[in-house]
Structure prediction request, 227 residues.
Amino acid sequence: MDSNRSNRIKLMDMISRVLPSAFFLFVVILKSAEVYTFLKVHYSASEPASWKFFVDAASKCSTVCFLGLMTILFFIRLQPIGKARSILPRVLAITGTFFVAIVTLFPRANLSMTQMFIASLMSFFGTVMSIFALAHLGRSFSLMAEARRLVTTGPYRIVRHPLYLFEEVASLGVLLQFFSPYTAALFVIHVYIQIQRMKNEELVLEKAFPEYQIYKQTTARVIPRLY
Prediction:
């Protein structure tokens, strides 16, 4: 019986690694094709290279790198030692991950060149910093509210959820490109979901790591001295 249970656990662990890795690898391939098309169209039109073009290209490439890193970390991450048991934290985790993509289904806003540049720059900066935070989180990474290893160094020394912070900066850049009262409302909902995800993760980490209480008292959730 113990052998069968052990085999089931190993099988579920492998599935939890392979399926999300395969999904994000598929997204990486799609995003890479988008980058290729973007560059091909630009150079086929023989348009002069501008700062906006370089920022747009860098932003798209950084997104591919971020998703590629997620693909790898899903496959090599540590086994969880604690996780949220109810269904709601899992639903919020999945919803929060993909909800902001709905914004891109709306018509693009009529922005000036300067506004487009600022929006693209915010997306680029947020994504690059997300890569930094994700790389530092390493094998402790998870979309769900799970505890693997307590990370309190690097950007996690300053705030408890730097990855969420940087992702929202990148998402805000996307919002500006599709800005409308409807997309603004969606973004507010997305931020609310992300805050609930942080709280769910903190509950799991508190149970798994007794030292988390001390860490929690000495760091802000996402913005130093504010929240």
